[in-house]
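DM from R.C. (forwarded with permission)

"hey, sorry to bug you on a friday — could you get me a structure for this? deadline for the figure draft is monday and I only need the backbone to look sensible"
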Amino acid sequence: MEDNRVNPTTNMKLLLYSQVDGRCPFCSKNLYYIKNNKIQKLFEIAHIYPANPKTHESELLKDVPRLSEDVNSMENLIVVCRDCHKKFDHPRTTEDYNRWYDLKKNLMLNDKAKSAFFDNNVEEEIIKVLNALVKIDCERELVQLSLSALKLDEKINKENSFIFRKKIREQVVDYYSMVREQFNELDVISPYQFEKIATQIKGYYLTLSTINENQESVFRMLVTWLDEKTGKISTLACEIIISFFIQNCEVFS
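My reply, with the result:
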C-alpha cells in the first residue's frame, strides 16, 4: 500500500509546537523535558484525519468534516503527547475525531487572533483605569447600575453558558458606574481619551468577530489582548473593562 505520510518540515514542527504553547492540548502534559542539560522532546505530530486510513476507518469517517483535503497540511496536523496520540489511533472513533477536529479548528482561530493581536494597540492611559479597579478600597460604596439600565440580553446570545452571562451581568451591575467615572476623570486630564480607547476596543472586537463567532471565545481573546497590552496588571480588571464595553455597545453590538 502506498504511504501518503510526508514528514513535516522543521518550520512546520516549530509552528505546530508553538500553536499548542508547548503542552499537549488534551492532557496538558509538558511536551519536553531536560536531562543531562539536553532538551528531550515528548511530542508527536498526529494526523487528525489519518494519512493512510484503513478500509474500516474510511467508512467510519466518510461523513466527517475535514479542515483540509491534504492529509499532510498544517490544518490536518496537531502536536500531542505520545499517550494521547496512541489513545486517538487505537481505536479510532468519530467522537474522538470530532473532538480533535474542534480543538484544531479553535487553535487555528486563535492563530488568526494572535496575528491581529500585534496590529491592534490600546492607549496607555487605560492603565490608570485598571489601576483604579485594582486599588478599590473594600469600604468604598460602589454605585450599582440599575438593572433596568441593562440591555445585555440584547447583546449576549442565549447560546452562551449561563455562568458566562451571569459573570458579565454582575460585573456590569457592580462596576459600570465606577469605570464610567474613571473614564470621565481621564477625559478631564486628556480630552477625547475615552473616545480613542473605545474606538480601539471596538476595532479589535470587529477584527475578532470576523475570525470567531463564539462570543465567549471573543471575550476571552479581548481580555487576553488587553491584559498583555497593559502589562498584565490584573486579568480580572481587564474582564471588568471588557464587560463595561459590552454594556457601552462597543463589544457585541
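R.C.: lifesaver. The two ends are 55 Å apart (CA to CA).
me: no worries. The beta strands are 32-35, 38-41, 43-47, 77-81.
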